[in-house]
Structures are given as C-alpha cells and as structure tokens.
C-alpha cells in the first residue's frame, strides 16, 4: 500500500509540473514504482513514447550517436493521472488474464445495445482471456 501512496505522490507532483520531469530521480522513481507507464521523450529531430523502464536506455543510445539530443521528458497528455486516477499501469497489465476476461464479460453484460458496446475497449481482435487473435487481413 505504501508503494501506491508513493506513486500517487509522484504522479501528483508530475501533474503539478504539467507532466514534465524536472529531476532525473523522478524518472528513476517512476521506473521503480510503475515500470510500464508511458513516457514521452522529445528530441531535437523527433519524439517517441516508451515505457519508463526503457527511457534511460534509449537516451543513452541517442547521446552515444551524437546526432541528436533529448529536449525533455513528460507523461503523455492522455495519462490517467491528469484525471486524478493514479493507478499503476504495471499492475493492470500483470493481472491474471482470466480475471481480465471475466471483467470484460461482466462489462459486456451490463450494456444493452451495440451503441453502448462501443465504449468497451477493443483489444484489436478477439480476446479469449489469454491471447488476442487479430482481425486484420492475414495477407497484410
């Protein structure tokens, strides 16, 4: 429970800073508490998104290439922390797949028509509780 409180404090601080990391220790702390949370890395010639655990690795590659530089790091504008939801993305993705499947089926049972079904997240195909079978054309 202390980890969740620590994560809430960190995310609250980052939200007050409009999502920007002003201290490299905040990034290390985020990587330790919620390693899969997405971080936006803006460089001189572009930008990319990666998990908090991978940011320092990619920054090292960029600096070693001497062809670009890192301007800043921030949370994504769509991060749930900006809405006051401080849950851990790492915990979400590591739940038991059968539990996720049961929750999804319970959510579907609550909706009565197809229009309401559009609000349920799509996993890009059929989700059987363990795997996603893509609905993309196999010839692509």
Structural domains: how many: 2
Low-confidence residue ranges: 114-120
**Net shape:** globular
Query: How much is the average pLDDT?
Result: 77
Tell me what the structure shows.
- By secondary structure, the protein is an alpha+beta fold.
- The protein has two domains: 2-93, no CATH class; 97-134, no CATH class.
- 42% of the residues lie in helices and 16% in strands.
- It has helices at 2-16, 24-33, 55-65, 89-93, 97-110, 114-117; strands at 38-43, 47-51, 70-75, 125-127, 132-134.
- Helix 1 (2-16) packs antiparallel against helix 2.
- Mean pLDDT is 77; it is low at 114-120.
Secondary-structure topology with pairs:
Blueprint (H helix, E strand, L loop, with lengths): L1 H15 L7 H10 L4 E6 L3 E5 L3 H11 L4 E6 L13 H5 L3 H14 L3 H4 L7 E3 L4 E3 L6
Antiparallel strand pairs: 1-2, 1-3, 4-5
């Amino acid at each position: 429970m202390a980890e969740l409180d620590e994560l809430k404090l960190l995310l609250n601080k980052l939200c007050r800073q409009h999502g920007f990391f002003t201290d490299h220790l905040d990034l290390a702390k985020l990587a330790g508490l919620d390693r899969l949370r997405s971080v936006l890395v803006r460089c001189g010639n572009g930008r990319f998104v990666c998990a908090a655990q991978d940011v320092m690795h990619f920054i090292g590659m960029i600096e070693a290439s001497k062809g670009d530089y890192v301007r800043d790091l921030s949370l994504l504008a769509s991060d749930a922390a900006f809405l006051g939801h401080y849950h851990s993305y790492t915990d979400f993705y590591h739940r038991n797949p059968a539990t996720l499947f049961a929750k999804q089926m319970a959510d579907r049972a609550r909706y009565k028509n197809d229009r309401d079904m559009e609000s349920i997240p799509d996993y890009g195909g059929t989700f059987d509780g363990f795997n996603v079978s893509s609905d993309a054309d196999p010839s692509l």
